Amino acid sequence: MTAVTLANEEIRLARIALVGPPNSGKTTLFNTLTGGRQKTGNYPGVTVERKSGRLRTPVGHTVELLDLPGSYSLRARSPDEAITRDVVLGRQAREALPDAVVCVTDATNLGQHLRLLLELRQLGRPLILALNMMDIAQKRGCQISIEALSRQLGIPVVTTVAMRKNGVQDLLGQIDALLSQAPTADGTTAISDWVEPSPEAIRAYHREVERLLQEAVVREGAPERLTRQLDRVLLHPVAGPLILLALLFLMFQAVFSWAEAPMDWIDGGMAGLQQWLSEHMADSLLKSLLIDGIVAGVGGVVIFLPQILILFLFILLLEDSGYMTRAAFLMDRLMSGVGLNGRAFIPLLSSFACAIPGIMAARTIAHPLDRLVTILIAPLMTCSARLPVYVLLIAAFIPNTAVWGGIGLQGLVMFGLYATGIVGALIVAGALRLTLLRGGRQPLLMELPSYKWPNAANVLLGLWERAKIFMRRIGTIILSVLVILWFLATFPSPPEGATEPAIYYSFAGMIGHGLQPLLAPIGFNWQIAIALVPGLAAREVAVAALGTVYALSGDEGAVTEALTATLAQSWTLATALALLAWYVFAPQCLATLAAVRRETNSWRWPTFMFVYLMVLAYLAAFVTYRVALALGGG
Amino acid sequence: MNTYNEQERHAFALGQAVGLGFTQPLGRMRRGGVGRILAVSSAAGDRDIERGLLEMGFVEGARVEVLHHGFLGQDPLAVRINQTMTVALRRCEANAVLIGPLHDSATDIHPAMTLEYASS
Q1: CB-based contacts of A100: which residues, under 8 Å, 6+ apart?
Q2: Chain B contact set for A115 (CB, 8 A)
Q3: Is the pTM here over 0.90, yes or no?
Q4: What domains are there in chain B, each with its CATH number?
Q5: Average pLDDT of adjacent 10-residue blocks, chain A of 634 residues
Q6: Closest-CA residue in chain A for B95?
């Protein structure tokens, strides 16, 4: 590319920010405009991360579009709303003042959504109003005069249907018109004279909106009925919580039963690969590394991809349909009992898939103490990385029998492990609120959006992202840990005439033996001790590590199924239960600790989190082991 | 200049004049209750809650309907505002919103009172 065209590109690259209240369909509009990949949800503020994408307008301007977190007002109440405010005002570090702002509003809820537009208009920057979901508004018989609204506001107004590709043509046209008349950089770098609106100012905005609607709304639409009817059941004081509980139970049962077939395929594929390798490679260290270290290890982790995706599928569907906020509503009273907010339910439910998005989603919680408590207990929600360990141990030690009504004992134990994490989290939250983190709490104030059918494209994109993140983890952290582990487990070689398995004499064996006195009181043998060392970096590696440890101890080709049989023979029930209890609490994820460090901006809280979880894990495993022994589980 | 205090005084004076049973804090309302907001005040001088309520659509003159409540302590509430938006809030914050009877619908059984605050 020559210097001249480069310069032209730079001149034409305009930056436009997409701003709007939560549930205005802003993120779907962003996806349609950019063809970009982003998760959208109904929970107010689900767009936690600022995302940008490029688009080319019909005339040929290249635009960088920013998707800002949903906000009802520029007066930011939570950290992610603060990002919206700071970007719009040009105060965000390393983020130039946008050349224009597109304010997205739900056409069926203009009475509540236009106030944000008035706040933005006050700034005097280039602004376009997009009336989104216009198709739904029209279906309900609503008629809005775009000309009158545009005249009254003094800014361009367009209607958009974010779900349809040709629903954004008007918006693109207006962006072109705006960019053609205004130079992309007018010298303004930040807006300095903005002040938070006072209650009186907000009341004035309300009156102005009222006036505007009288001018522009030709006919009001009928109120939405379906959501009200659904809520009559789903938010019923008795039926509501029962339905929520049933949904969660169904979700965890599905994780087990639906995933069975694809897990078998992966298992078969890995076993086939191992066999092929062992037949076609000459005996060497490399062959050992490939078969025992990498294929066995990676196979032991990849096999859980179906379960993780099913879990995320449920979470994405609940978010996208609008049910997630109902869950927060139903849980609020229970959670306020331990000093938390119903809103914390969403980050905590995400944490069942992975604590990291959960910890990041806690940005939607306005009060700093509420947010900190939510972050600190997020790792107690059983994340998908624990599933491999749970599945392995349950399959090995819990008989696959039906208890009552066709509910399997294995599923029930799994449910119990999840429940233990939740109860533990509630107790920890209550204790923190009474001791270290005393103080005021945030009001609930949360919109319950209309239900809608989940958008298939949004959900599939979300699932695809999860799968990518998981596979990338396997390709980076997990793979490198596996190679190191293989090295530790292979060298030094056993002495001549050794009686124990080779790993017994290796570095890994030495570390395991060193740790064993510490772990003996909770019933862990040296094999577990070895597996826990790499398991500190990432939980699911422990399964692969156990596979490596036992594969090298003599059992060739031990992928999960073989490992199940091995463990059932060599561990006592008490040891298995103690390890399960350990896994409910133990802080074995470097990435989570790094996320907490990032979100709290200090080492203090990740350190605190690590210590308190470690202590809990040891205590839980100790009590479980001793009780199980006493009951004859030895 | 301070319209807020004026409105608040007006609403509370009105509340005293009409007596209990006709006006009540939103936090005391039952499921199915319908009314119109007379005043949004700042509980214990916390104007952040007042602003939060205003930003979620709780403004003087808006029609509210209590659609749902939770199981424990009948808390929190789900309140429909102006037939367009449903907001969840706890009863303790809802107490900052003072509700009077509707004056524009067939359910209004106290037409004499409407004159008092129709202008607000």
Answers
A1: A14, A16, A17, A125, A126, A127, A128, A175, A178, A179, A182
A2: 55
A3: no
A4: 6-100 (2.30.30.90)
A5: 44 82 85 66 42 83 86 85 87 81 92 93 92 89 92 93 78 88 64 86 93 90 87 94 90 77 84 84 80 73 76 84 91 85 81 77 77 91 82 84 77 87 91 81 84 83 76 74 77 74 77 87 87 73 74 52 81 90 86 79 90 94 93 75
A6: A443
